[in-house]
Design a protein that fits this description.
The chain has 62 residues and is mainly alpha-helical. Helices cover 73% and strands 0% of the residues. It has 2 helices and no strands. Helix 1 packs antiparallel against helix 2. It is elongated.
């Protein structure tokens, strides 16, 4: 379930970044940058949780 949430949130952040970046800051490539940052934060969080021993993976996530 966490993977699905990560993908959906990354798509939404990328879309909003593209739309708002183009309209407000004249930076149409802001969406992919924000999407990569969002996915990187999810990966970083997963690595830290695994290192701390809080794996939290259920059988649905595998």
């Amino acid at each position: 379930m966490n993977k699905v949430i990560a993908v959906i949130l990354t798509i939404v952040v990328g879309y909003l970044g593209s739309a708002l970046g183009y309209e407000i800051m004249n930076w149409p490539r802001l969406g992919p940058v924000l999407a990569v940052i969002t996915m990187g934060l999810f990966l970083w969080n997963a690595v830290e949780r695994k290192a701390a021993g809080e794996d939290g993976a259920s059988q649905d996530d595998t």
